Amino acid sequence: MVALPDWMALAPALSLALASLVLLLADSVDPDTTNTGLLAGISVLGSLLSFGFAGWFITAGTGMADSTGVALFNNQLVVDQMALFFMAIVGSVTTLVVLASYDYVAEHSYQAEFFVLVLLSATGMSLLSAANSLATAFVALELVSLPSYALVAFLKENKGSVEAGLKYFLIGAVSSAVLAYGISLVYAATGVLRFDGVATAISSGTVQTIVDGSVQAQAGDPAVPMAILGVGILMIIGGVAFKTASVPFHFWAPEAYEGAPAPISAFLSSASKAAGFVLAFRAFAVAFPIGDLLAAGGAINWVMAFQILAIATMFIGNFAAATQETVKRMLAYSSVGHAGYVLIGLAAVSGSGEGLSLSMSAGMSHLLVYGFMNTGAFLFIALAEYWGVGRRFEDYNGLGREAPVACAAMTVFLFSLAGLPIGGGFFSKFYLFQATLNVSAWSLAAALIINSALSLFYYSRVVKAMWIEEPTGSRTIESYPMGLYTAVVGAALVTVLLLPGFNRVSEIAFQAAQLL
Amino acid sequence: MSNPWIAIGALAVVALAIPLTMMAVSSLLRPSVPEQGKRTTYESGEVPTGSSRQIKFNIQYYMVALLFVVFDIETVFIFPWTVIYSDAAAEFGMTTALLPMVVFIAILAIGLGWAWRNGAVQWVRSPRATKGADTYE
Description:
- Chain B: Belongs to the complex I subunit 3 family.
- The complex is a heterodimer of chains A (516) and B (137).
- Chain A has helices spanning 11-29, 36-60, 81-104, 111-130, 134-152, 159-190, 195-204, 226-243, 252-259, 262-287, 290-295, 302-322, 327-347, 356-387, 399-402, 404-418, 425-438, 442-467, 482-515; strands at 70-72, 77-79, 208-211, 214-217.
- Chain A is mainly α.
- Chain B has helices at 5-29, 36-39, 60-92, 94-117, 127-130.
- Chain B is flat.
- The N and C termini of chain B lie far apart (56 Å).
């Protein structure tokens, strides 16, 4: 096999960026184009290419020969198995979303802009997966966020969409500021921004500096001020909580997901959440190793913080979802609840930092499965919006008779989200459960079980409405849009296939987490 | 060696003295012709609408300001690059030194070209912004 140059390791991110530039060029050639097929085609091609590269690199074992992965640009970016795993999630979700958007944006103006913004945001997510320094991570995070603010407000004639966009933007700006301040405090305390440098500073207790790309102690061996470091880490937790829609920064999520066009809700709740989590996993596993942090005087016990956040997020998300009247808002709150499940990945760790690779790989696997089932569920909502079906549970009554294939797919998504053994969601939740038992975190295990049982109640309300209830009003479905159907059915197929295929996923995730 | 802070103090004095002198001299020399156009808020030659407390500019000015930022950032990166370019080209070869900047500028050019084609720099005059402004233009 030909050995590719090192920079090619970024191919998953580069193909997304390239596709967005090609889209801009296509739109420059003909600004008034309504050729949705061409625009969506370029986008699907770019995101499929990204997914393909990520999948190829994972199977080819890129970045496994070296313990640090493929380091680029003076270690600012590192492509290892974990980065590739998340690049694959981003690539797959983006493919589904742009495929489904083909029908959704067909009647809107500014189609090219829509696809360009989705792809630019996806580029940011892909880069964030590989970011190995707080500064790079921040820039990538902004590249994720800025297009998504515009995308939420894409339906600019629709007041709900504009309001959601503004709320999302304001909360996002505040949490970006919090994150930037946290980063500056960590930098002030440790003297470095690179994750491995921060880790060295914490374990050695002295301020570090980077000379010619290698981390060294600063002259005079000044000690790391642990209190400042602790405040910085706390603020970084806040920034991560916003991006992943976890308590206490979750309240933008229901608003933004409800107001945004449904494919964008799918994109934000799956890919954007995954991007937030990859930052959290890498930063907390590599830069702030819990064992060293506690040994060095215990600036902050972030495992404890994540345990509280995980339990609070699970309960608040799921209980709020159970009381909703509209399906999209219910899914939005359930997505908050799922952020709580994935947070177990950073919470189910023993006091000395053991069990981190197991719990993190469980979180990663859940994110991958969730990427398909949650995207699929939101895309079904997009389908319902396309047909003009109402927003409430009752409006879905009897939909199963008119669109059996799509409703069967939706049933798979919902039961898989609840954790029934009909899709990969069963095994990923079980894996998370194992991770909690591994370190005897009984409260996390109990919260996981209680909330999964509760979620079954509200997910089955939709299923009951679709299949059992009689249709209330007259409703005619005139067309069965190709792109949306392909995306929904494809996502359902993968969700089911992840049932037998979960073993492989969890193996890759475990290996990736161990390599960190 | 005298205290280097003296130079900084002198700079501050000069910085204050120049504008004060200019204002004083021009107030002695100029004829006084009060006029509405001279009292409006000035921002890059844009005519504001509304009262002086809530000044509103034509929204297209915002697009131009955004495009300005593109060139601004470009300058920030090009200046240090030009300074080290010949050394870098001698040490690492021309491709390594030149190509990244070409890619960077190409990305900006694609964005600018797109904005141009989509009418971001096309100046449409809104009747509200130009109302009453024609009297002193």
